[in-house]
């Protein structure tokens, strides 16, 4: 039930406060001894200052501190724990920071400029990707392109890839390879501007992107043209899959073809028409985020020089927009699985960063007892046992409430009436109803889609130069640490 | 206009099926929309067994494609974003096309409804709207759940 980290005998021997600990009445508390072991481990630990050969950036879209907490409890409870004591893989990374996520012109950020900041080292304009601060949304004549981390890695002979559960042309993956004045130009852009899917193929042709796995088949074929897993939506009628076929890039479209792909050659995988399925709804024929992450690392590792991989759990964000905590947390568990899989495949020369681009307006109610289902009703704290009492806590209206609620969104208790006004009250809830995977938690402000929030997110890191993260940092610092870990450290070593 | 639908309700907002079939309402199998599809989007046993029969399906009315229509889309969870309002957004796979008995009074997208109608399976393209559906409820009436 405690922090499951490796603690060596040496580390315990080095513990500075062992003598102090023995005298205290709390010294036999399991909580106390676990904290002592962690202290010893941290005293003994040394910073990893070798140059990073590989960088893996994990982004769970919309997974702020609150959402990460929800995923932690959800996974722990799935494994039979009360939940609070559980740790996600990145919870155990030695280095972390709080990350400020605002955009140049937005207090509440969107996923395009936030991912852009991570990939270029500079804040960007709302709804734009990898353009300088003079960018005007939706106006490609204002595009002043920034240099990308992917291009720097590629120029240095390293491989670059990404995995994403939305379309490969969606904001977060697009920030790895594209520049655009409008993040919605997936397959269509005004005269004289370049759509994002075309830019991906351009970057594969240029040898910058070696692995691209996700959804978005529709973005690669002409309007109405049937392709594997979907139907084209491109008004220009271009068949980008034909262009890809001429580039010695493998094209895969399901779990089977992905598994069979030649790991030594570039690959694009388009596994769904638009977004890939939520983990909860995923058919076996579609690869999971973990399947894609493993395949991407196997591909990229064939380059002895190293690689940059970005992995996005993009549908955590979508489920939260839908006001559905269950799917957000289940996709979060799949994200954690992908991190564990990556950790097993890499060694000390790989910098692993886990973060989010922004938070949502998710909140967690009180005062709930231990083990209250994080997707269930807030159950009362028990006086005579560790676990909750099994009795729901009642609000002032005499009704139970769920642990999770949202500040706004489709779950609003204020419902549109026939005269166009909004009114309502909190309905009576049962545990069976609220733990259903399709349940939308109660929200306050009525909106068709729940929103992002400007609150800080967390970042966790392990590997070369991970110790450069700390305190509260601006999001663009991620690029600077990645860049130093690979290039700065390399220069210093020479 | 469908005469039976007109007779069923003056307001057209809620109420149940035509009075002629009212006595059989209790016998209608009632399920949630998700019980029509498996994860791989094949039809469930419930769907295939009840093809051509009147069933009651719980779901949510997506923001209608156009005003004053007898057509709407039923979704499994509230359709948080209108696919026609957001650039290149897509319908989820697990939807149900509903052809109601009469012009529908719009029910907010986040209010659970029950739609009763005859279950029709197989891909069909609406000649007027161009909307492609895999499963439909025909001759339907709907009410708040
Ligand atoms: Zn979002």
From TrEMBL, chain A:
<keyword id="KW-0862">Zinc</keyword>
<keyword id="KW-0597">Phosphoprotein</keyword>
<feature type="binding site">
    <location>
        <position position="317"/>
    </location>
    <ligand>
        <name>Zn(2+)</name>
    </ligand>
</feature>
<dbReference type="InterPro" id="IPR017850">
    <property type="entry name" value="Alkaline_phosphatase_core_sf"/>
</dbReference>
<feature type="signal peptide">
    <location>
        <begin position="1"/>
        <end position="21"/>
    </location>
</feature>
<dbReference type="Pfam" id="PF00245">
    <property type="entry name" value="Alk_phosphatase"/>
</dbReference>
<comment type="similarity">
    <text>Belongs to the alkaline phosphatase family.</text>
</comment>
<keyword id="KW-0732">Signal</keyword>
<feature type="binding site">
    <location>
        <position position="170"/>
    </location>
    <ligand>
        <name>Mg(2+)</name>
    </ligand>
</feature>
<dbReference type="InterPro" id="IPR001952">
    <property type="entry name" value="Alkaline_phosphatase"/>
</dbReference>
<keyword id="KW-0479">Metal-binding</keyword>
<feature type="binding site">
    <location>
        <position position="357"/>
    </location>
    <ligand>
        <name>Zn(2+)</name>
    </ligand>
</feature>
<dbReference type="GO" id="GO:0046872">
    <property type="term" value="F:metal ion binding"/>
</dbReference>
<feature type="binding site">
    <location>
        <position position="452"/>
    </location>
    <ligand>
        <name>Zn(2+)</name>
    </ligand>
</feature>
<feature type="binding site">
    <location>
        <position position="61"/>
    </location>
    <ligand>
        <name>Mg(2+)</name>
    </ligand>
</feature>
<dbReference type="GO" id="GO:0004035">
    <property type="term" value="F:alkaline phosphatase activity"/>
</dbReference>
<feature type="binding site">
    <location>
        <position position="358"/>
    </location>
    <ligand>
        <name>Zn(2+)</name>
    </ligand>
</feature>
<feature type="binding site">
    <location>
        <position position="321"/>
    </location>
    <ligand>
        <name>Zn(2+)</name>
    </ligand>
</feature>
<feature type="binding site">
    <location>
        <position position="61"/>
    </location>
    <ligand>
        <name>Zn(2+)</name>
    </ligand>
</feature>
<protein>
    <submittedName>
        <fullName>Alkaline phosphatase</fullName>
    </submittedName>
</protein>
<feature type="binding site">
    <location>
        <position position="312"/>
    </location>
    <ligand>
        <name>Mg(2+)</name>
    </ligand>
</feature>
<feature type="active site" description="Phosphoserine intermediate">
    <location>
        <position position="111"/>
    </location>
</feature>
UniProtKB/TrEMBL annotation, chain B:
<protein>
    <submittedName>
        <fullName>Uncharacterized protein</fullName>
    </submittedName>
</protein>
């Amino acid at each position: 039930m405690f922090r499951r980290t490796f603690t060596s005998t040496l580390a315990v021997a080095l513990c500075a406060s062992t003598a102090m600990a023995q005298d205290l009445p709390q010294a036999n508390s399991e909580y106390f001894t676990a904290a002592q072991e962690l202290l010893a481990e941290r005293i003994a630990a040394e910073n990893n200052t070798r140059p990073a050969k590989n960088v893996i950036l994990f982004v769970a879209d919309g997974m702020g501190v609150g959402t990460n907490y929800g995923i932690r409890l959800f996974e722990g409870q799935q494994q039979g724990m009360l939940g609070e004591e559980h740790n996600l893989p990145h919870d155990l990374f030695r280095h972390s920071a709080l990350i400020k996520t605002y955009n140049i012109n937005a207090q509440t950020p969107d996923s395009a400029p936030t991912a852009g900041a991570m990939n270029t080292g500079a804040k960007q304009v709302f709804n734009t990707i990898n353009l300088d601060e003079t960018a005007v949304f939706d106006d490609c004549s204002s595009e002043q392109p920034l240099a990308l981390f992917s291009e720097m890695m590629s120029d240095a002979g390293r491989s670059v890839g990404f995995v994403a559960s939305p379309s490969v042309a969606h904001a977060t993956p697009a920030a790895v390879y594209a520049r655009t004045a409008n993040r919605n130009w997936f397959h269509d852009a005004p005269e004289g501007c370049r759509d994002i899917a075309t830019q991906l193929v351009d970057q594969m042709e240029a040898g910058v992107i070696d692995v691209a796995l996700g959804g978005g088949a529709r973005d690669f074929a002409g309007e109405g043209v049937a392709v594997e897993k979907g139907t084209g939506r491109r008004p220009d009628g271009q068949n980008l899959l034909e262009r890809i076929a001429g580039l010695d890039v493998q094209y895969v479209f399901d779990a089977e073809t992905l598994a069979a792909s030649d790991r030594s050659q570039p690959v694009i995988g388009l596994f769904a028409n638009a977004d890939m399925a939520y983990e909860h709804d995923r058919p076996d024929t579609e690869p999971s985020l973990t399947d894609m992450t493993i395949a991407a690392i196997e591909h990229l590792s064939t380059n002895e020089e190293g690689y940059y991989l970005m992995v996005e759990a993009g549908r955590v964000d979508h489920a939260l927009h839908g006001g559905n905590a269950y799917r957000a947390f289940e996709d979060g568990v799949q994200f954690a699985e992908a991190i564990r899989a990556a950790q097993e495949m890499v060694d000390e020369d790989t910098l692993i960063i886990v973060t989010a681009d922004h938070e949502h307006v998710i909140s967690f109610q009180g005062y709930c007892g231990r083990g209250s289902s994080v997707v269930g009703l807030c159950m009362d704290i028990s006086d005579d046992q560790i676990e909750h009492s099994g009795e729901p806590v009642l609000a002032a209206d005499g009704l139970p409430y769920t642990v999770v609620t949202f500040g706004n969104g489709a779950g609003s208790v204020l419902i549109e009436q026939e005269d166009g006004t909004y009114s309502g009250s909190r309905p009576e809830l049962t545990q069976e109803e609220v733990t259903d995977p399709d349940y939308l938690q109660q929200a306050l402000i009525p909106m068709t889609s729940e929103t992002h929030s400007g609150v800080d997110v967390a970042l966790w890191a392990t590997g070369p130069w991970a110790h450069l993260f700390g305190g509260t940092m601006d999001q663009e610092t991620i690029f600077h640490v990645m860049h130093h870990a690979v290039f700065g450290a390399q220069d210093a070593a020479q | 206009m469908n005469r039976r639908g007109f007779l069923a309700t003056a307001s057209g907002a809620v109420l149940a099926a035509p009075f002629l079939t009212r006595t059989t309402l209790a016998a209608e199998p009632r399920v949630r929309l998700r019980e029509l599809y498996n994860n791989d989007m094949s039809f469930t046993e419930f769907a295939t067994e009840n093809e051509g029969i009147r069933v009651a399906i719980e779901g949510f009315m997506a923001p209608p494609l156009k005003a004053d229509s007898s057509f709407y889309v039923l979704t499994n969870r509230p359709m948080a974003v209108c696919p026609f309002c957001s650039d290149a957004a897509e319908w989820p796979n697990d939807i149900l096309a509903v052809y109601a008995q009469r012009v529908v009074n719009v029910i907010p997208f986040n209010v659970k409804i029950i739609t009763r109608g005859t279950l029709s399976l197989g891909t069909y393209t609406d000649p007027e709207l161009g909307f492609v559906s895999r499963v439909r409820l025909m001759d339907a009436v709907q009410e708040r759940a």
